[in-house]
C-alpha cells in the first residue's frame, strides 16, 4: 500500500512540478523586438518582451498549453507547447504583416486564431469601439458588418444580427450567459465598455455551443485582462458628449503577482435628453449608468481559477412625447431602474494531456418601472414645499422622492449557470471536446403590475464537437441535445372593471442541434469557409404569457401559450482574398426558420393601447456582407475600408418580417501613424454611412427613407515618463442630418434620431 501511495505521489508531483518558459523574440533581420505580447489564454497570464527582446513566464503547468505571440505589424504566432523541463527556452521569429494583428477567438471552443477558425467570427477590440465615439456600448456594436441595434432613444439599444434580435441573440459576459430579462426590446444591453477587453460576434446559429437563445448568433464580451506578470497598471478617463451634455468618468486598477492577480474597474455616466438634427430635444431620453467590476485570479502548475464580480445599475427615461426642452439629468416619470449583479467562477484544470474547463455563475437582475400614477401622491406632497429652494436642493429632493416611490413593475430574476467541458487529449491533427451546460432560473414579481408571471426555468444540454486539420484543410462538426422546462404560476390582475389572467403553464421543449464546417484555401489565395448549422429557440416568458401594457414599446401585448420552439437551418459561405495591399471578403448566408415567432397587431384596443399578439409562421432570411480593404504601397499609413451589408426577411406567405435592417454601405478613409516622436498609435478617420431606403416592411410598419451620415475621428497616445495619455476626438453625424432609423422604436411617433454629437475623451495610464 505504501508503494502505491508513493507512486501516486510521484505522479502527482510530476503534474504540478514547477515549470518556467523564457526566450527572445526577433524579426527576419535578427532585430530584437520589444513590447511583444506573450499570452497564455488558459491561465490568463502574459508578459511583454523587454528592450533586449527577452521574456520569461513562471509557474506554468507541464501539460500542453497554447501560447500566443502578437505584435502590431507582424503575423501572430500561436503554438502548442509541452514543458518537460523545469526551465525551457523557446525563441520566436516574427514575420512582418501589413494587416492588423491576428487574434485568438474565445467564443468558439478550440480558441484558434481568427485566420484559422473554421467558423467565421468577427472581433473588435475596446480601443476600436472607443475610436468610434459611441455613446453606449450597444451603439458601438453597429461598427461590425451585419450587426445593428434596435433603439429607443440613445440609452436603450439591443443588438440585431442579420435581422434576428431579442432572445434569438445570446449575450455572454464574464464567461457566462447574460440573463437580464433580455426578451424585452425596451431596456438596454446591461454591459459597459469599462468592463471589457474586446467583443466577438458569431453571426448565425450557435446552438451547438450555447443551446437555446443562440439561434441568431452570439455577442461574446471578453472581460478586461489582468496586468502583465509582476506589473501594476492604473488608469482613469473622462469623456464628454456635446449632444446630450453627457459625461462619463471611469477608472481601473490591476496588479499581478507570481500566482495571484487582481483587478477592479468602474464607471459613471450621465446624459440629458438627446437633440435631433432639427434641433429639438426628445423628452425623457435622459439616462445614467453606474458600473463596477472586480476579479481575482490564482494559477499554479495544475489549475487556473478566476472569480469575477460585475455590477451594473442604470436608470433610463421612457420617452412618450416631445415636451419640455431641457438639459436636466434627473429622471422624470416614467422611467426604468435596472440592476444586474453577476458572480462567476472560471476554472481550468490540467490533467496530463487533457484539461477540464468549468464555469459557474450566479446572476441577480432586478427590473423596476415607475409610471405616472405612482407620482400623484408625490406631487401632492410637494405642494407645501418651500418654492424658494435653489436648483441643487430641488434635484436632491426629487431623487429622494423617487426612491420612496413604489414601482409599478418589480421583477427579480435569479439565474444559476454552469458550463463544464472536457478537452480530450489532442494530437497534431485532431481535437475534441465533450461537455454539459445548464441553467436554473426563477422569476418573481413584487409590483402591482405584471408583465410576465412568476416562473421557474430549467435547462440542460450535452454536446460534443471535434476538429480535424490536415494541411490547408480543416473539418469541424458537432452535435448537441437540449432540454428546457418552463413552469409558471397563475396570476389574476384586476384593472377597474377588467381582469387580466395569466394562466399557469408547465411546458417542456427538446431539441437536437448540429453543425458542420469546412475551411480550405482555393487557388492558393482565397480562404474559404462553408458552414451548415441548425439551431433552436424555445418560446420565452414574454411570448408565452404576456398580458398587459409594455410602456417601453407603447403597446398592449398578449402572449400565446400554444407556441412551439423555433428551429432554423442556415448555410454560410465566406470567401477572403488577401494580398499584401488588398483584402476582399464576401460572406453570404441563407437562414430558414420554422415556426418563427413574431408579434402582430390585432386591431383591438386594451387599456388605451393597441393590442399586439404573438403568432408563428415559417420564415426565411438571406443576404450577406461584402468588404474591401485597400492598403496601398508605398502609402503604408493609408487605409480604405468599404463594407456593404444587406438582409431580407420574409414569412412563408411572402409578407416581410418586421424590424429588418435597411441595406447599408459604409466607407472609411483612415490614416494611421504608429510613431511620431512622443506620439504613437495616432489616427485620423473619415466615415461616410449610406443607409438605403427600407420599403420591405412588416404589417405594422411603414417604409423608412434613406439617409447619409458623416463621422469624423482623430486620436493619439503620448508617452511621458512611463505615463501614457490617450485622447480621442469624434464628431458623429457631423452634418447634423435629420433622419429616422428603421430600427428606432420612436419611428412610429415620427421622432428623429440623434443629431450632431461631438465626443472628447482623455484616458491616462500609469
Detail the topology: elements first, then pairings.
Blueprint (H helix, E strand, L loop, with lengths): L1 H15 L2 E9 L9 E4 L4 E4 L5 E7 L4 E6 L6 E5 L5 E3 L2 E3 L26 E5 H5 L6 H4 L6 E6 L3 E6 L7 E5 L2 E2 L18 E8 L3 H4 L6 E7 L8 E10 L4 E11 L3 E12 L15 E13 L3 E15 L17 E17 L2 E17 L5 H7 L8 H14 L4 E15 L6 E16 L9 E16 L2 E16 L2 E5 L2 E5 L3 E17 L3 E12 L3 H5 L1 E4 L4 E4 L7 E13 L3 E25 L2 E22 L7 E14 L12 E13 L2 E13 L15 E14 L2 E10 L24 E9 L1
Parallel strand pairs: 1-7, 1-8, 12-15, 32-35
Antiparallel strand pairs: 1-4, 2-3, 2-5, 5-6, 9-14, 10-11, 12-13, 14-15, 16-17, 16-41, 17-18, 18-19, 19-20, 20-21, 21-22, 22-23, 23-24, 24-25, 25-26, 26-29, 27-28, 29-30, 30-33, 31-32, 33-34, 34-35, 35-36, 36-37, 37-38, 38-39, 39-40, 40-41
Can you walk me through this structure?
The protein has about 775 residues and is mainly β. It folds into two domains: about 1-95, Carboxypeptidase-like, regulatory domain (Immunoglobulin-like, Sandwich), CATH 2.60.40.1120; about 120-370 and about 410-765, Maltoporin, Chain A. It contains seven helices and 41 strands. The protein has a 22-stranded antiparallel barrel. Strand 23 and strand 24 (about 430-445) form a beta hairpin. It is globular and about 80 Å long.
Amino acid at each position: 500500500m505504501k508503494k502505491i501511495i508513493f507512486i501516486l505521489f510521484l505522479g502527482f508531483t510530476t503534474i504540478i512540478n514547477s515549470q518556467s518558459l523564457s526566450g527572445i523574440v526577433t524579426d527576419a533581420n535578427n532585430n530584437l523586438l520589444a513590447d511583444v505580447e506573450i499570452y497564455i489564454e488558459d491561465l490568463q497570464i502574459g508578459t511583454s518582451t523587454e528592450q533586449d527582446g527577452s521574456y520569461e513566464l513562471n509557474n506554468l503547468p507541464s501539460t500542453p498549453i497554447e501560447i500566443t505571440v502578437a505584435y502590431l505589424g507582424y503575423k501572430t504566432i500561436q503554438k502548442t507547447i509541452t514543458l518537460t523541463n523545469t526551465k525551457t527556452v523557446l525563441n520566436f521569429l516574427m514575420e512582418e504583416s501589413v494587416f492588423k494583428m491576428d487574434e485568438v477567438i474565445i467564443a468558439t471552443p478550440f480558441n484558434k486564431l481568427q485566420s484559422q477558425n473554421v467558423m467565421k467570427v468577427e472581433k473588435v477590440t475596446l480601443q476600436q469601439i472607443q475610436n468610434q465615439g459611441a455613446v453606449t456600448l450597444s451603439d458601438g456594436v453597429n461598427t461590425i458588418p451585419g450587426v445593428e441595434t434596435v433603439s429607443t432613444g440613445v440609452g436603450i439599444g439591443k443588438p440585431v444580427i442579420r435581422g434576428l434580435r431579442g432572445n434569438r441573440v445570446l449575450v455572454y459576459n464574464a464567461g457566462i450567459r447574460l440573463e437580464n430579462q433580455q426578451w424585452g426590446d425596451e431596456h438596454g444591453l446591461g454591459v459597459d465598455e469599462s468592463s471589457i477587453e474586446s467583443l466577438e460576434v458569431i453571426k448565425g446559429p450557435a446552438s451547438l455551443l450555447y443551446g437555446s437563445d443562440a439561434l441568431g448568433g452570439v455577442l461574446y464580451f471578453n472581460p478586461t485582462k489582468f496586468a502583465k506578470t509582476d506589473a501594476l497598471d492604473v488608469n482613469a478617463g473622462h469623456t464628454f458628449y456635446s449632444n446630450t451634455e453627457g459625461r462619463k468618468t471611469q477608472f481601473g486598477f490591476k496588479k499581478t503577482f507570481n500566482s495571484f492577480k487582481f483587478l477592479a474597474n468602474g464607471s459613471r455616466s450621465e446624459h440629458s435628453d438627446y437633440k435631433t438634427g432639427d434641433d429639438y430635444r426628445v423628452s425623457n431620453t435622459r439616462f445614467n449608468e453606474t458600473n463596477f467590476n472586480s476579479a481575482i485570479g490564482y494559477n499554479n502548475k495544475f489549475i487556473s481559477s478566476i472569480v469575477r464580480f460585475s455590477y451594473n445599475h442604470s436608470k433610463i427615461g421612457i420617452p412618450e412625447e416631445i415636451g419640455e426642452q431641457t438639459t436636466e439629468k434627473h429622471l422624470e416619470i416614467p422611467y426604468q431602474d435596472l440592476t444586474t449583479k453577476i458572480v462567476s467562477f472560471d476554472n481550468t484544470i490540467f490533467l496530463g494531456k487533457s484539461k477540464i474547463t468549468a464555469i459557474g455563475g450566479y446572476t441577480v437582475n432586478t427590473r423596476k418601472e415607475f409610471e405616472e400614477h405612482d407620482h400623484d401622491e408625490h406631487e401632492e406632497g410637494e405642494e407645501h414645499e418651500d418654492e424658494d429652494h435653489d436648483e441643487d436642493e430641488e434635484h436632491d429632493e426629487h431623487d429622494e422622492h423617487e426612491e420612496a416611490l413604489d414601482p409599478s413593475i418589480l421583477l427579480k430574476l435569479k439565474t444559476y449557470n454552469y458550463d463544464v467541458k472536457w478537452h480530450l487529449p489532442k494530437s497534431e491533427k485532431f481535437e475534441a471536446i465533450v461537455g454539459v451546460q445548464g441553467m436554473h432560473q426563477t422569476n418573481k414579481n413584487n409590483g402591482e403590475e405584471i408583465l410576465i408571471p412568476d416562473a421557474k426555468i430549467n435547462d440542460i444540454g450535452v454536446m460534443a464537437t471535434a476538429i480535424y486539420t490536415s494541411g490547408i484543410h480543416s473539418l469541424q462538426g458537432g452535435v448537441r441535445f437540449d432540454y428546457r422546462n418552463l413552469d409558471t404560476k397563475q396570476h389574476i390582475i384586476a384593472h377597474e372593471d377588467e381582469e387580466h389572467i395569466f394562466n399557469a403553464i408547465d411546458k417542456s421543449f427538446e431539441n437536437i442541434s448540429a453543425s458542420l464546417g469546412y475551411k480550405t484555401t482555393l487557388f492558393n489565395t482565397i480562404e474559404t469557409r462553408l458552414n451548415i448549422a441548425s439551431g433552436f429557440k424555445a418560446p420565452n416568458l414574454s411570448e408565452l404569457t404576456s398580458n398587459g401594457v409594455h410602456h417601453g414599446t407603447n403597446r398592449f401585448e398578449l402572449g400565446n401559450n400554444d407556441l412551439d420552439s423555433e428551429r432554423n437551418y442556415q448555410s454560410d459561405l465566406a470567401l477572403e482574398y488577401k494580398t499584401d495591399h488588398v483584402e476582399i471578403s464576401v460572406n453570404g448566408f441563407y437562414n430558414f426558420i420554422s415556426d418563427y415567432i413574431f408579434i402582430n397587431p390585432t386591431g383591438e384596443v386594451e387599456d388605451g393601447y393597441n393590442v399586439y399578439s404573438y403568432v408563428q409562421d415559417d420564415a426565411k432570411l438571406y443576404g450577406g456582407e461584402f468588404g474591401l480593404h485597400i492598403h496601398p504601397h508605398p502609402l503604408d499609413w493609408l487605409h480604405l475600408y468599404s463594407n456593404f451589408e444587406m438582409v431580407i426577411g420574409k414569412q412563408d406567405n411572402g409578407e416581410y418580417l418586421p424590424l429588418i435592417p435597411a441595406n447599408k454601405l459604409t466607407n472609411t478613409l483612415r490614416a494611421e501613424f504608429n510613431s511620431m516622436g512622443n506620439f504613437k498609435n495616432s489616427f485620423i478617420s473619415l466615415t461616410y454611412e449610406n443607409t438605403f431606403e427600407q420599403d420591405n416592411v412588416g404589417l405594422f410598419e411603414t417604409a423608412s427613407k434613406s439617409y447619409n451620415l458623416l463621422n469624423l475621428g482623430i486620436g493619439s497616445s503620448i508617452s511621458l515618463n512611463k505615463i501614457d495619455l490617450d485622447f480621442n476626438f469624434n464628431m458623429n453625424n457631423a452634418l447634423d442630418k435629420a433622419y429616422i432609423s428603421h430600427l428606432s422604436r420612436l419611428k412610429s411617433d415620427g421622432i428623429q434620431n440623434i443629431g450632431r454629437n461631438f465626443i472628447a475623451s482623455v484616458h491616462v495610464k500609469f
